Amino acid sequence: MAWNLHHAVVAFCVLLNVAFHGSARAEWAIDVDYSIENDASAGLTSYSPLGAVLVDRLADGNFTGRFRAVQGVSGQLKAKLVEAAKNPNSIYRIRAGKVFSFNEPCLLLRSNLAHLFQVSIDPEKQTVFSIALFPDGLYEAGADYNNCEGVQLASDAKFSSNVRVVKSGELPTPDTVSYLQKMERERHARQHGAQQDNRSFIAKYWMYIVPVVAFMVISNAIAPEQNE
Fold it and tell me: May I ask which residue range the UniProt record assigns to the signal sequence (predicted)?
């Protein structure tokens, strides 16, 4: 009896562990790399791993996301942003596959390294349409937003993130084949006179002419009576 109870407890713990860790796994992971260039005009861009956007499907069919940063990236990112912010021509770039985004290093310092990622996806094909990077919680930066002079970065500032996931679908493509076939049929009909209308002018437009004539006849009949 005790042996069976022991096995039941072990089995329950295993199932609980699987359920917990299974729920922690995302349905889809989108790798994100970053590059911080002290001079954006330098040309060559070298990227390093930043982390991954983890996308999960909600019960209502929408999607939510969270960001899992690469271990140790916070300190590296902080140092690189501080150094890059000294040059107004510097740029902070991110990429997710073939889509890119960028922002000012100074703005990320003003937000104390708080990132907001907005990702537009096609969940059925697991395709990323776009990714955008914003300084999270920063609502006003001023006209000199790329000037970090006087900006005080919190001593305990470290990388943090929020993710917004927008579900998008492909736009319908124009039915070019049907359109060309229709144009070809119309051209062919005109060439062979199938749609030519050889009726006289009156036969074509009698429905417009008759009301006008009737109105003129009635007006002419009423005018002499009014003069009497």
Answer: 1-26
- Phi then psi for 105, rounded to 5 degrees? -55, -35
Residue for token digits 């940063």? 69
Buried b (16+ CB within 10 A) or exposed e, 89-113: ebbbbbbbeebbbbbbbbbbbbbbb
Q: What is the pLDDT of residues 17-27, one digit of tens each?
A: 434 334 445 68
Hey, how many other C-beta atoms are within 10 angstroms of the C-beta on 215? 10
List the beta bridge partners of residue 114. Answer: 160
Taking CA atoms, 36 is separated from 46, 48, 63, 137, in Å, by 8, 9, 30, 21
Tens of pLDDT along 81-130?
Answer: 988 888 888 899 999 999 999 998 888 988 889 999 999 998 888 889 99
pLDDT at 13 over 70: no
As a dihedral over the C-alpha atoms of residue 108, residue 110, residue 114, residue 116, rounded to 10 degrees, the angle is: -60
End-to-end CA distance of the chain: 123
